[in-house]
């Protein structure tokens, strides 16, 4: 016995919305967009004046910067990565040896000379000890500049 096919479903006709309804919907959308823009603007103004009470993670920093600069998080992340590369090229071997973020901080590569092994004293017991030799090395020194010092006080 052969089965009969089920009858095809009738396609529902799309109802056309009246122009007045469409206009009203567009007005509501525009109003919500304006309200959202006002909230973002108010949040930006509030954020720039109030101190941050909890330490921000990298994600938090990216969110704050993207909101303040009207950029996407990807753009801010790319900017921070480029800044890292720029600092690296300045302080690496063969570079200038110094990078300044104007007004905020200065990053320098400082050469530390090698030390010979020597005799010293244990400050707790007064017993003589041998201090081992250390090879020459390069360290990174970061110095706060005027504006950064002014932010603290």
Global structural class = alpha+beta
Indicate the percent of residues in helices. Answer: 40-55%
Shape: elongated
Strand order of the largest sheet: 1-2-5
Proportion of residues in extended strands: 15-25%
Mean pLDDT: 87
Q: What is the terminal-to-terminal distance?
A: 93 Å
Give the ordered list of helices and strands.
HHHEEEEEH
Q: What is the C-alpha radius of gyration, as a whole number of Å?
A: 32 Å
Would you identify the regions where 5 or more consecutive residues have pLDDT less than 50? Answer: none
Number of helices, counting only DSSP H or I runs of 4 residues or more: 4
Total beta strand runs: 5
Main beta sheet: strand number and arrangement?
Answer: 3 strands, antiparallel
Outline:
By secondary structure, this protein is an alpha+beta fold.
């Amino acid at each position: 016995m052969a089965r009969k096919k089920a009858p095809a479903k009738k396609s529902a006709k799309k109802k056309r919305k009246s122009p007045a309804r469409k206009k009203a919907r567009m007005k509501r959308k525009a109003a919500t967009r304006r309200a959202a823009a006002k909230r973002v603007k108010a949040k930006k103004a509030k954020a720039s004046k109030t101190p941050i009470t909890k330490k921000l993670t990298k994600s938090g920093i990216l969110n704050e910067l993207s909101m303040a600069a009207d950029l996407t998080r990807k753009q801010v992340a790319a900017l921070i990565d480029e800044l890292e590369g720029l600092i690296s090229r300045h302080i690496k071997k063969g570079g200038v040896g110094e990078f300044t973020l104007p007004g905020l901080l200065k990053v320098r590569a400082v050469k530390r000379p090698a030390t010979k092994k020597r005799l010293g004293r244990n400050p707790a017991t007064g017993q003589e000890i041998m201090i081992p030799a250390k090879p020459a090395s390069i360290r990174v020194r970061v110095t706060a500049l005027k504006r950064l010092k002014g932010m603290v006080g």
